[in-house]
Design brief:
The protein is of the alpha/beta class. The protein is built from 4 helices and 7 strands, in the order E-E-E-H-E-H-E-H-E-H-E.
C-alpha cells in the first residue's frame, strides 16, 4: 500500500470578513515549501496524489505542494474544513480519502503515495492526541494504528 501523509496548511491571515479572504503569509508560503521538500524526500513508489480541503489557505498550500510534486490537487468540499470534527469520518482515513477523491472523479490508487492538505483537528487525531498542537506546514505520516477515530 502507498504511504499517506497529512500536511497542515501554512500560516495565513484573514484580509476580509470571511474565510474566503484568507491567504498564506510569506511565512506560510515558506512553511509549505519546506513541507513540499520533505514530501519529495520521502521514499515512495509511484506518482503522488494530492487531496485538499476547500479552505483557501489549504488550497493555496496544496497548489504550492502540487507544483513541487508535479500533480494537480483535488479539492474536496466534503470535509476537512476548519471547525469540522474528525469524527465526521466514518471508517478509516484511507477509505474516506478514496471516497472523497471518487466524488471528484479521481480514483485513489492505493499503491501510490497520497498527501492530504488539511487542518489541525484532523492532524491532531491522526497523531493520536486531539489536544496536540501541530505547527503550520507540518507533515505527518498516517499510521492506522495511532489514528484515534472515533475517540476524537
Amino acid at each position: 500500500m502507498g504511504k499517506l501523509f497529512l500536511v497542515r496548511h501554512g500560516a495565513y491571515e484573514r484580509l476580509g470578513w470571511s474565510r474566503r479572504d484568507e491567504y498564506l503569509t510569506e511565512t506560510g508560503i515558506a512553511q509549505v515549501r519546506q513541507a513540499a521538500a520533505l514530501l519529495l524526500s520521502k521514499e515512495v513508489t509511484g506518482d503522488w496524489q494530492l487531496l485538499s480541503s476547500q479552505a483557501p489557505r489549504a488550497v493555496e498550500s496544496a497548489n504550492i505542494i502540487g507544483n513541487a510534486l508535479n500533480v494537480q490537487p483535488v479539492v474536496s468540499d466534503r470535509v476537512w474544513r476548519a471547525g469540522d470534527s474528525p469524527s465526521m469520518i466514518t471508517g478509516n482515513l484511507v477509505d474516506f480519502a478514496a471516497d472523497a477523491l471518487r466524488e471528484k472523479g479521481a480514483e485513489y490508487d492505493f499503491n501510490r503515495p497520497l498527501a492530504i492538505v488539511s487542518h489541525l483537528p484532523l492532524l491532531a487525531c491522526a497523531a493520536g492526541d486531539p489536544r496536540m498542537s501541530i505547527e503550520n506546514g507540518a507533515v505527518l505520516e498516517y499510521d492506522p494504528d495511532v489514528w484515534r477515530h472515533p475517540a476524537c
